Amino acid sequence: MTILPPTFLVADLPEQAQLEAFLDEHRSAIRGTLDGLDEEQARRVLVPSGTTLLGLLKHAAFVEAVWFDEAITHRPRAEIGIPWTAPESYLLGPDETVASTVLLHEQVCERSRRIAATASLDDVMTGSRHGDFPLRWIYLHMIRELAEHCGHADILREQILAAG
Q: Which of 14, 48, 70, 112 lies deepest, with the highest CB count within 10 Å?
């Protein structure tokens, strides 16, 4: 018996529910790359850019806040509590742990769901510093962004597990 991914189960739902399901699949996948890893492994630097699995998850929380909070609600980044630039969003403080970063990502994603539920896909969001975008575009951008980072995370996790 073939087990289908959860996104196959939403094919008959409205488009926004479908987009939310695909996005949730990627949200879960990027968190899942930290499953079973210790703090050192999650922070291990294996590539010249300095990207770590924990940093990727922190960045994923950042992009959620940028696109589903700042772009929709118009709240400034300082009020949201996120860095001014994307490169800063990968940086980890000594008090940031796997558990605290997973919790942060879960909380930001839940806030994103609540905010997005207040709009329709064709509503144009005017709070982004990059321009005005319909909510549909924000979903598609976020799915692409997380798919890319899930790929990065899969490779980093593979390297960590291979090293032991």
A: 112
